[in-house]
Amino acid sequence: xxxxxxxSSLVRQTGAGLRLLLVLTVVTGVLYxxxxxxxSRAPGLVGKAEGSVVRAGGRPVGSxxxxxxxxxxxxxxDPWFHTRPSASANDPLGPGDPSTSGGSNLAADNAKLVDLxxxxxxxxxxxxxxxxxxxxxxxxxxxxxxxxxxxxPAYADLQVARVARVNGLPEQVVRQIVDGHVRGRVLGVLxxxxxxxxxxxxxxxxxxQH
Length: 210
Description:
It is found in: Cell membrane. Pfam families: KdpC. The system is composed of three essential subunits: KdpA, KdpB and KdpC. This is Potassium-transporting ATPase KdpC subunit. This protein is mostly helical and about 210 residues long. It folds into two domains: about 1-45; about 55-210, no CATH class. The chain is about 50% helix and about 10% strand. Strands 3-5-4 form a three-stranded antiparallel sheet. Strands 1-2 form a two-stranded antiparallel ribbon. β1 and β2 form a beta hairpin. α5 packs antiparallel against α6 (about 170-180) and α6 (about 170-180) packs across α7 (about 195-210).
């Protein structure tokens, strides 16, 4: 008799557990993912949900949210605008590894970081042919993610002369491209003006082709 009651109780509990498992599987494994996917299809969210992919000529060329620092085949004839340095890079200026993002976690007075900033400033000044004092702060400090897609207008302006010369474009044309891609502060007060590096390089490529 006791065995029968125990077996009956086991069957009821097992049945209840299986029913609960089925309900939660449907809710969390089907309905919830479908709801999230449905929200991501809303106007204004589709692009972000798909990774903010940037296309040129009908094919994907990058993301508006992930900065990738292009490497020139010949460093002496570098045609690209460059992003901020990445903490994941093997050398001071990069390029970094977009699949491994993150900051250095070094304090502002850390000797290693101070030396790294000095090396970056010297390398950028040499690349752009300007005094070290002309190199802006964001050019020598890595972003928290290491894959920041934006740079300051000051850093973009610093690169204009080189990009124009190597690409065979008038400097005024490249400067107009930079000015036309400056994004202001959010609501006029939040953040700092910025320029998307991928957008700049695509615009320069288009200007060269035309």
